Amino acid sequence: MNDMVPVDLVVDHSVQVDVARSENAVQANMELEFSRNKERFGFLKWGSTAFNNMLVVPPGSGIVHQVNLEYLARVVFNNGGILYPDSVVGTDSHTTMIDGLGVAGWGVGGIEAEATMLGQPMSMVLPAVVGFKLSGKLRNGVTATDLVLTVTQMLRKHGVVGKFVEFYGGGMGELSLADRATIANMAPEYGATMGFFPVDAKTLDYLKLTGRSDETVAMIETYLRANNMFVDYKQVQAERVYSSYLELDLDEVEPCLSGPKRPHDRVTLKNMKSDWLSCLDNKVGFKVKPWIKTSLAPGSGVVKKYLDKSGLQKYLNQLGFNIVGYGCTTCIGNSGDLDESVAAAITDNDVVAAAVLSGNRNFEGRVHALTRANYLASPPLVVAYALAGTVNIDFEKEPVGISKDGKEVYFRDIWPTTDEIAEVVKASVLPDMFKGTYEAITKGNPMWNELPVSASTLYPWDPKSTYIHEPPYFKDMTMTPPGARPVKDAYCLLNFGDSITTDHISPAGSIHPDSPAAKYLKERNVERKDFNSYGSRRGNDEIMARGTFANIRIVNKFLKGEVGPQTIHVPSGEKLAVFDAAMKYKNEGHDTIILAGAEYGSGSSRDWAAKGPMLQGVKAVIAKSFERIHRSNLAGMGIVPLCFKAGEDADTLGLTGHERYTIQLPTDVNEIKPGQDVTVTTDNGKSFTCTLRFDTEVELAYYTHGGILPYVIRKIA
């Protein structure tokens, strides 16, 4: 089976920060990356030759979203003389970054993406569109990160889950393409399906800057103008009609961070010290100081070129911000180990350690297991906090540090003006840099090019591999769909509160040495130093099933205040690792369900957060609300998503999770409708009504086929 639409695969989530503060960091980290991931990369390289219509961008090239902005995105497709608007779905929730370029795009789970690759249409309920009007201009010294954190908080408060957001207004002309892309990137954090910026003159300028030809840019402009899809802010703008409205005067935005555990918890810079001190009471939930781990991982090779040309990189190197690689590192959990003495001090003294990063994710346990507080900030603020060596500082009143001549240096002394930044950008960011980088991007690097690849069109599975394992989704599959399956007398595997993220469900970071996944690897003679991460072992279902609900910061109500990846096996009362309890239920012939609060499955569009529970035997999730992508992924794996009615949840209904649950779905598939009411009963006499969150007929079809993958196979066979 070949993919039926153009597919671009950027390998960007496997580099780890093993070596930092070194001129050799890029090469050293890449060598370790290839050593750890040789099997995975071999599999991906095989795919680049075995399938048609697929481009693989090798490791070390950059982060998918920046590569998409600078190189991959077409804006308007020209397919044999037929023109149509570009659109994209990507297997990362921050695919929305491309909306800043005027390309409609958003993240989906790998499950849904696989179906799309095989020609299946996207299915969704027509979304409401929120109009977000921007006016004014950002004040001197205020960054795009400050703006996006402000926008994120406003949109979270407004409520935009499952909606589109379109930005418009006079302030648009004051935002660079990079600023727009930063705001669009954070759509998952404010909950929207996408945050869209229509194409205008700024977009065309960026396309030229990044090496697109004059002919291509002229074609894009002509097509979009002819179809009334180009916005010209030099002309009077007609008033637009939206489902709801928000407005922000850019002049009101002030420097800020976000954290310590959620991207939409904004903290103004002037209040950062007091916010940090309050965190210490609630532990759950010029040179850089030597205990600070510093790293710089740009989104593309172009960044190094303009940092070098501007002269900035040599000073960043002096501060320990040497480039460590090109890919997702810190915010995916690949931040690498801390110095042993620092790690020991944190653990032995129960220190609340903090991370400050210019990424987009700061969920608990994600950046590093030992950093309980994690703040999102602009890149220059990250450097400022590294210089200070602590977040316990008020930059308005306290010095960042002491100069060589003994003078106190304050934040205001080192912060550049907006004009200064613009002047350096204009002189240092040049079109030839983009052209030179992307002309060579698909040629790979020596390590990638030396990987041996099978010429077979079928992949030769190695049963001994702990990285690539033949997936179990088609075992015992018949060409007849199984139809609706009853959920009767199921036990509750886990009982959650609000804001359980896909990182809680399926962590991407390091594998804990006492976890079921570690036990599996040890049994196969894999040493601890070679465990790698869950993210790097996604090609092995045996490990990923064991890694489901393995986040060390997960909070399960069954454990009554304890934190960690364990649960209670209800029939026996045993406290077990979640995977072990799930297998015990399976072996006993029992179905399981999950109880959850609001925003279940928020965060990354991680398909393993649905695949893993399915492999553990979970048949349904009953929650107050779901994040859009995760709910879709559950449907795609044949797991029933149910929502409590408004004003109700497990606590108000008196559910402890020790009950047994029967979900009264009709056995006749023709009697099941998207969004219908479903009665749930328990063995102790409770009964309550939920909303069935199969939102479309297509999702319902996925369920009756046992998931999206069996459905697609049956359709094309």
TrEMBL record:
Which coenzymes or cofactors are required? [4Fe-4S] cluster
The record's annotation in SUPFAM superfamilies points to: Aconitase iron-sulfur domain (SSF53732), LeuD/IlvD-like (SSF52016)
Keyword set for this entry?
Answer: Iron, Iron-sulfur, Metal-binding
Q: Which GO terms describe its molecular function?
A: 4 iron, 4 sulfur cluster binding; hydro-lyase activity; metal ion binding
- Output the InterPro entries linked to this UniProt entry: AcnA_IRP_Swivel, Acnase/IPM_dHydase_lsu_aba_1/3, Acoase/IPM_deHydtase_lsu_aba, Aconitase/3IPM_dehydase_swvl, Aconitase/IRP2, Aconitase_4Fe-4S_BS, Aconitase_4Fe-4S_dom, AconitaseA/IPMdHydase_ssu_swvl
Start and end of every Aconitase/3-isopropylmalate dehydratase large subunit alpha/beta/alpha domain? 1-274, 283-389
Pfam families attached to this UniProt entry = Aconitase, Aconitase_C
Q: Please give the Gene3D superfamilies that the UniProt record associates with this protein.
A: 6.10.190.10, Aconitase, domain 3, Aconitase, domain 4
**Which intervals hold domain Aconitase A/isopropylmalate dehydratase small subunit swivel?**
518-646
Provide the GO biological process annotations.
Answer: oxoacid metabolic process
What family does the database annotate? Belongs to the aconitase/IPM isomerase family.
Question: How is this protein named in the record?
Answer: Aconitate hydratase
Q: Which organism is it from?
A: Aegilops tauschii subsp. strangulata
